[in-house]
Amino acid sequence: MAHLTNKPSAAEAAVAAHYGLLLGIQTPWQVVRADLKLQEKKVEIAVEHDRAGQVACPQCGRACPRYDHTAERQWRHLDVMQFTTIIRARVPRCQCPEHGVVTAATPWAEPSGRFTVFFEAFAVNVIEASRSLTQAAELLRVDWHTIQEIVHRAVERGLLRRQTDRVDQVGLDEKSFGRGQNYVSLMTDLPGRRVLDVVEGRDTASALRLWQTLPEDQRKKVTAVAIDMSDAFAGATRQAAPQAVIVYDKFHVSKYLNEAVDKVRREEHRKLLQQGDASLTSTKYLWLQGASPEGDRALSFSELCARNLKTARAWVHKETFSEFWAQPSVAAGRKFFSQWFPAARRSKLEPIKKVAATLKAHLTGLLNYFLHPITNALTEGFNSKVQAIKADARGFRRFANYRARILFHCGKLDLSPDLRLNPTH
Ligand SMILES: [Zn+2]
User: Fold this and answer.
1) Contacts of 204 (CB under 8 A, 6+ apart)
2) What's the 89 CA to ligand 1 centre distance in angstroms?
């Protein structure tokens, strides 16, 4: 295809018409030329707005007199036969009596986009399916920052379209972020199984900002919230959504109990080793999970329990407490706790005694589980996804990128550009 200056040949006109159909370009727009650049593996498609006609105002649709043209812009479209396909056009501006001088809409792209809506929709699908942004960048043959921009635009679109008017049970949870001791806090819609928002930090101010991302009328309709036993989340909830019932997350409780058992084990293991007794070697996960691969342990689990080790006693307190969650009512839960607690306090196992005191101080929120059986298992479940997002570490210096990617992958947002922008589709 020769580069044209004036009149296209019949063959060239046919090629231009073919691209017009392919791209769904219609009056008042027209494909006037398609330049195939073999060396660059590229097709450049020149599109023109009807030179004589009026221009529709993008805001009111009124046909208005033409004002001028913008400089030539270009948009990347879906590749055709592995050729990078570029649309080039000068976009007319019109003088609308109501809206002033405005740039006409381009049916193939969003107002400020550098890609056609089809390319952008395809890119969103590729990013969703990719293991990392780097992989998506390679597949789409764009640079990494462009991918990040596509993610941000997709999330913006999704947040604008998102409905939150039925959010009534939420979870607040923290995650580590970046290197070192940085944290983010997340709010999740528990029945909707989606992340609602992410903010930096994990103190009361962070949790308040998280609550404020929910529209105020919606905040008032939240009936219950699952949180850990830190004061930050409870304090912020009492301020921002005082009507919401606080339910302490059972996974955090079992984490505290597991840590206490492990503390007892480490201490006892150290003492036993000094006496030449290696019974507790390789047993860490045995006490945490109640089962583990055989490994090179000296004794079976029942043999260990029979030795009346401190670790075994700590383990019994932890295991017994797991039955708390199976109680049928608040009254039954309270009764169960009144039996578990004194035994734990008398255990002479400092870590266990300490957790028992913490649980007692938070008893109301623990018993609320029987009124609203909610947990943050959902955020725990997001862990593998969030870890994958973190593992692709580039650009994570910026919190905004991290937030966008969590919302992109875990927000259940409607991310694609509106393909109806294009009149033929
Ligand atoms: Zn107008």
Assistant:
1) 231, 232, 235, 236
2) 22
| Confidence category of residue 295, pLDDT binned at 50, 70, 90 | low
CA–CA distances in Å: residue 286 to residues 98, 295, 297: 74, 11, 10
Cα of 64 vs centre of ligand 1, distance in Å, is 8
Q: pLDDT (tens digit, 9 = 90+) per residue, 384-419?
A: 777 777 666 555 567 888 899 899 999 999 999 887
Which contiguous run of DSSP H or E holds residue 382? helix 377-391
Claim to verify: residue 239 and residue 381 sit in the same structural domain: yes
83 and 146 in a single domain? The answer is no
Q: 354 CA to middle of ligand 1, Å?
A: 69
Instruction: Using DSSP, state whether 66 is helix, strand or coil.
Output: strand
Query: Which CATH number do you get for residue 173?
Result: 3.30.420.10
- CA 19, chain centre distance (Å): 38
CA 30–ligand 1 middle distance (angstroms): 23
Same domain membership, residue 360 and residue 258: yes
Written as six digits, the tokens of 29 are 């727009």
The phi, psi pair for 267, rounded to 5°, reads -65, -45
Q: What's the gap in Å between 27 CA and the centre of ligand 1? A: 20
Distance 58 CA to ligand 1 centre (A): 7
In the chain, how many domains are there?
4
Beta strand spans in 126-176 (E): 169-176
Q: Looking at the structure, do residues 231 and 294 belong to the same domain, yes or no? A: no
Same-domain status, 345 and 270? yes
> Measuring CA to CA, how many Å separate 347 from each of 36, 297, 318?
81, 26, 12
Residue 45 is inside which H or E element, if any?
strand 42-49
Q: What phi and psi values does residue 286 have, to the nearest 5 degrees?
A: -60, -45
Contact 139, 128 (CB under 8 A): no
149-196 pLDDT tens trace = 999 999 999 999 999 888 999 999 998 876 667 888 999 999 999 999
Could you tell me which residues come within 8 angstroms of residue 193 by beta carbon, excluding any fewer than 6 positions away? 378, 412
Q: How far, in Å, from the CA of 96 to the mean position of ligand 1?
A: 5
In the reported structure, the alpha carbon of residue 102 is separated from the centroid of ligand 1 by a whole-number distance in angstroms of 8
Beta bridge partners of 44: 35, 86
Residue 77 Cα to ligand 1 midpoint, Å, equals 28
Element (H, E) at 248: strand 245-248
Contacts of 149 (CB under 8 A, 6+ apart): none
How many H-runs (helices) and E-runs (strands) does the chain carry?
16, 14
φ/ψ (deg, to 5) at 224:
-150, 150
Residue with tokens 């660059």: 40
